[in-house]
Amino acid sequence: MTGEFAVEEFALADAAELAALHMQVWREAYAGMISQEYLDGMQLEPRIERWRQRIVFAADTEARGEADGVRRRSRLARHRPTGRIAGFCSVGAARDDDAPVPQELSSLNVLAQFHGSGVARQLVDATLGERAAYLWVVRQNARAIAFYDKLGFVADGGTKHDDDLGCDEIRMVRQNGRTADA
């Protein structure tokens, strides 16, 4: 059903909707996995401003193109029938000093109502493609771990604790592109 979604670049006009979607996805996906205090404390207005900054940054870094084989790309998926944003994905240079590969899938967020629609895979294809990459995922997020596994990501033993979110995360790595059907 991926024909239901148009993959687009981020636009400043989408900042408020992206901020609201980001909060909704986190509240849907992470309830019981991360700090409820953090989830309850999320506020829309500051997030809109951060999204404006993120959109400008994404356009700037993407315009510079690839460097050292690292793609910097952010995309959203718009649900064609409703015009609503269904999710977003961003990839870029590794943010960790001890990164196993230079490319990081830094965010993939899709509204729960679109789970199973193929839009998450469409977003990953549009941003990351078949490239080697790594990501961090909340240890208890079995749905996300299973999805990333289908894309060829494997837990490599890397772990970290996020004090702000009150959760443990595991690192998953894909060395040479997809290895299973998703």
From TrEMBL:
<feature type="domain" description="N-acetyltransferase">
    <location>
        <begin position="5"/>
        <end position="177"/>
    </location>
</feature>
<keyword id="KW-0687">Ribonucleoprotein</keyword>
<dbReference type="GO" id="GO:0016747">
    <property type="term" value="F:acyltransferase activity, transferring groups other than amino-acyl groups"/>
</dbReference>
<protein>
    <submittedName>
        <fullName>Ribosomal protein S18 acetylase RimI-like enzyme</fullName>
    </submittedName>
</protein>
<dbReference type="GO" id="GO:0005840">
    <property type="term" value="C:ribosome"/>
</dbReference>
<dbReference type="InterPro" id="IPR000182">
    <property type="entry name" value="GNAT_dom"/>
</dbReference>
<dbReference type="Pfam" id="PF13508">
    <property type="entry name" value="Acetyltransf_7"/>
</dbReference>
<keyword id="KW-0689">Ribosomal protein</keyword>
<dbReference type="InterPro" id="IPR016181">
    <property type="entry name" value="Acyl_CoA_acyltransferase"/>
</dbReference>
